[in-house]
Amino acid sequence: MLRRILSSLAIPLLLSACSTAPLTPPATASAGDPSSTAPDVSDAGQAVVSAADPRAAEAGAAILRAGGSATDAAIATMLALNVVEPQSSGIGGGGFYVRGTAEGEVETIDGRETAPAGADPQWFLDESGTPLPFPEAVLTGLSIGVPGNLRLAALAHEKHGQLPWADLFAPAITLARDGFTVTPRLHGYLERVKDRAANDPAGVALYYQADGSAIPAGSTLRNPDLAETLTRIAQAGADSFYEGPHGQALAEKIASVTPRRLGEAGAESGAMVAADIAGYEAKARTPVCGTYRLYRICGMGPPSSGATTVYAVLKQLERFDLAAMGPNSPVFWHVFADSQRIAYADRELYLADSDFVDVPVAGLTDANYLTRRGLLIDPKHALTKVEAGHPAGAAISRADGDEPVENGTSHFVVIDDDGNAVSYTSTVEGPFGSGHMFGGFFLNNELTDFSFSPEKDGKSVANRVEGGKRPRSSMSPSVVYDPQGKMVLVVGAAGGGTIPVQVAKAIIGVIDFNLSVESAIALPGLYAPGDTVYIEPGTALTAMQADLEAMGHTVAARSMPFKANAAQRVDGEWVGAADPRSEGAVAHP
Ligand code: GLU
């Protein structure tokens, strides 16, 4: 059974024409309308998939139907998304996988891309030491990290797969080989982000017509190169992507589009080599968990800033009676904004790849520390100044990095019949990643998630480029357990820096406001990573702007790339939800 959340025809695109500006689908009429507070259980079932595209959700459901585990179905969904939503994610990118059992065991796998071993902190600086303009960096091999999704999938499958590896590829291969219908959203991205989608002759041939216009919505698109690539990996395994002739050719492709550059010692340095690809490792990491109002929230730790930031935003608000305030109260949005500002100040200073930098995760998630940080929030007045705190273990003095522009990504969730959940966020970073293609898929631009500036005022930036390092992420695949220890919510989102806020809002919506997760996701978006509070245009927040300003906030309306997917347990059954701003869909086996 497949339920479209919105007809694709109902989703116009309001993408910015400027490729470096945030690209954002518009808020739809349903965003911000928490009218249905009671969870809709009409479409509930024991097992469920929620993804950003109905064909991808159905791919996961088909695998569940065939007896696959949540992990199997999540891998099939990830592969299908590569075909039908190429602007967002795929095997040319990376991701984070969080698996939770019904009984409360949580594990995470880090499939984040890595910089080539030859990369150095000067990677994104020109000869004069000035950071390269973003568009210049993104369209070259400088932005491409070693893709992580396939080794992530292989590790997850080794641990929790039930069906043969090759079976997981079947739905994606069928979509790529036989074709799929181009959605208005894909068409819109192809038109608006031509500098990336048409950066490579392969992209032009696949996605554009002779007159240069993007293949229209509603037409059938076949991607035989991707069908062939997926067929080979299905048969020969993930290693065949990383090693041997494929790994070698992939490294050569990336090196061929990487500008020559000189490293610190004046020697040529940098570009990707076959050993970088062959040596890629997906890493099992310790999940980051914390308790918010007796609920246990678990997610992805470094190199993601996701779990620490989601948790900080929530925990700092614990002393407030958010339920009494409700989502129509400007005071709620004010305290939510200031909690974000406090959390993002810490994120900016401390979060990076913990294999390279000491990240004080225990200090940042310590309940006493966060309670103290939360005491800074005044329910009547906006903070005039927000600074990073001093969590335990934060001995080293660091500088803030630059916050990159982001906009790709897909989150999906799967619950299987055994009650195991997978919450997986997959990304090529920006729309169509670097725009460079290989074997029918786009190569990521994840390395632009590093801070271009390696140091400020003589202090090093935690998220600076280093050889073999993983750029800091915002992706926040999460699972939530209720006070009885039963899994109750599985959630994540796309949208760059806004991701932790979307996840925190969904959790507050469910726990504090007693909304269905679908209504919680649909609540208006407010994002306050710094001193400006951005509000989603065309929502109930517009009417609250004056109240927020009266409390001392600087407020600006801005379209933001919100796209969340989730599932919620209601009366023992799982109900899926997708963002009304997206083409997302829920499928049951
Ligand atoms: N690359 C981003 C990250 O890992 C996500 C991109 C996006 O969702 O816009 O944080």
Automatic annotation (TrEMBL):
Query: What's in the keyword line of the UniProt record?
Result: Acyltransferase, Glutathione biosynthesis, Hydrolase, Signal, Transferase, Zymogen
For this protein's source organism, the top of the classification is: Bacteria, Pseudomonadati, Pseudomonadota, Alphaproteobacteria, Sphingomonadales
Highest taxon of source: Bacteria
Record text on subunit structure and interactions: This enzyme consists of two polypeptide chains, which are synthesized in precursor form from a single polypeptide.
Q: Name one GO molecular function term.
A: glutathione hydrolase activity
Instruction: Give the record's pathway.
Output: Sulfur metabolism; glutathione metabolism
Organism listed in the record = Altericroceibacterium endophyticum
Q: Where is this region: Disordered?
A: 25-49, 454-477
Which catalytic reaction applies to this protein? an S-substituted glutathione + H2O = an S-substituted L-cysteinylglycine + L-glutamate; an N-terminal (5-L-glutamyl)-[peptide] + an alpha-amino acid = 5-L-glutamyl amino acid + an N-terminal L-alpha-aminoacyl-[peptide]; glutathione + H2O = L-cysteinylglycine + L-glutamate
Which Enzyme Commission numbers does its entry carry? 2.3.2.2, 3.4.19.13
Protein name, entry field = Glutathione hydrolase proenzyme
Q: Which Pfam families match?
A: G_glu_transpept
Query: In the UniProt record, does the keyword Transferase occur?
Result: yes
Q: Binding positions for L-glutamate?
A: 112, 449, 473-474, 496
What residue stretch is flagged as signal peptide? 1-21
- Name a single GO biological process: glutathione biosynthetic process
Family per record:
Belongs to the gamma-glutamyltransferase family.
Residues annotated as the enzyme's active site:
409 (nucleophile)
PTM remark? Cleaved by autocatalysis into a large and a small subunit.
